[in-house]
């Protein structure tokens, strides 16, 4: 005789074709924002590809056909495209539903596009530049990569006030690093500037998040930088000068934003101390 548990409902095992699609785990779905994030990772990987095939391999094989300039421009343009994807995936995630793995995908993609790609760019620069030292450049590249790793890890577990980043955002840092390399400064100056940029990425300096008008300004600057790189790659009249001006402007912005942030913190500290003294003075009979 078969004994049936009265608390067990007949047919409690669902048929495979009766499983509602809504019961699919949310972690297995990709949102529109996640797709943009994957575009970010793809651009970063392709930047490494063009840096290898268009700069490093021709240099090692003695090819001087001029491919290096076009490939360098293509690699940097791909990093700029990755920054565009990174800008829009955050905007789309705030407007539409994002998947639970969106934050992890964003960090992993940023590590490829703004950690590995610029660090590899610095490494290859140390191998192909005439006045560079390969091993020293390798150390600088490792510093850039580790700075991005630490910055992304801290971003995942540290809460800061709304509307700001703690430390230079990795896309901005990556573009600053490649701008320093493209500016063709002396090797020692390039090395110091690259390491200084890495330090800013792990610093506690506050940077504003690109929202609203600032996001439009950032997008406009990225598009302008792409145009400068294209003019330089195709040897347009004045292209070299325009590229140097654009790289210099990127470096100036990277240097001045921390100064403004530090001045604002000093002013805030002074105001708090003054208010504290006034409050204590008011309590004295």
Task: Explain the layout of strands and helices.
Layout: H1 32-61, H2 67-95, H3 102-128, H4 134-157, E1 164-166, H5 170-182, H6 187-202, E2 206-208, H7 213-233, H8 239-283
Antiparallel strand pairs: 1-2
Q: Can you offer a commentary on this structure?
A:
By secondary structure, the protein is mostly helical. 72% of the residues lie in helices and 2% in strands. It has eight helices and two strands. It has a two-stranded antiparallel sheet with strand order 1-2. Helix 2 packs antiparallel against helix 5, helix 2 runs antiparallel to helix 7 (213-233) and helix 5 runs antiparallel to helix 6 (187-202). It is globular, with a radius of gyration of 25 Å. The N and C termini lie far apart (93 Å). Mean pLDDT is 82; it is low at 6-24.
Keywords summarizing the entry:
285 residues, 72% helix, mainly alpha, globular
Beta-strand segment tally: 2
The H-and-E topology, N to C, reads as HHHHEHHEHH
Uncertain residue ranges: 6-24
Mean pLDDT: 82
DSSP helical segment count: 8
> Which structural class is indicated by helix and strand composition?
mainly alpha
How much of the sequence is in beta strands? under 5%
Q: What is the terminal separation in angstroms?
A: 93 Å
Major sheet attributes: 2 strands, antiparallel
Morphology: globular
The oligomeric state is single chain
Rg from Cα: 25 Å
Q: Strand order, biggest sheet?
A: 1-2
Percent of residues in helices: over 70%
């Amino acid at each position: 005789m078969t004994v049936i548990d009265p608390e067990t409902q007949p047919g409690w095992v669902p048929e495979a074709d009766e499983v509602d699609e809504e019961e699919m785990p949310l972690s297995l779905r990709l949102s529109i924002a996640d797709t943009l994030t994957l575009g970010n990772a793809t651009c970063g990987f392709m930047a490494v590809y063009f840096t290898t095939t268009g700069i490093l391999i021709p240099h090692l094989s003695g090819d001087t056909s001029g491919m290096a300039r076009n490939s360098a421009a293509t690699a940097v343009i791909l990093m700029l495209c990755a920054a565009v994807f990174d800008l829009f995936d955050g905007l789309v995630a705030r407007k539409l539903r994002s998947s639970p793995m969106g934050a992890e995908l964003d960090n992993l993609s940023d590590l490829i596009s703004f950690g590995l790609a610029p660090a590899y760019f610095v490494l290859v620069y140390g191998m192909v530049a005439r006045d560079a030292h390969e091993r020293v450049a390798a150390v600088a590249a490792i510093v850039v990569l580790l700075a991005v790793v630490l910055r992304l890890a801290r971003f995942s577990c540290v809460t800061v006030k709304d509307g700001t980043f703690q430390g230079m955002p990795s896309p901005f840092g990556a573009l600053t690093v490649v701008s320093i390399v493209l500016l063709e400064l002396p090797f020692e100056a390039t090395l110091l500037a690259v390491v200084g940029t890495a330090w800013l990425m792990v610093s506690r300096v506050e940077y504003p998040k690109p929202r609203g008008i600032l996001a439009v300004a950032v997008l406009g600057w990225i598009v302008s930088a792409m145009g400068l790189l294209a003019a330089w790659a195709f040897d347009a009249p004045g292209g070299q000068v325009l590229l140097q001006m654009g790289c210099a402007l990127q470096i100036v912005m990277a240097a001045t934003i921390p100064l403004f942030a530090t001045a604002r913190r000093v002013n805030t500290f002074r105001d708090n101390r003054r208010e504290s003294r006034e409050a204590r003075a008011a309590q004295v009979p």
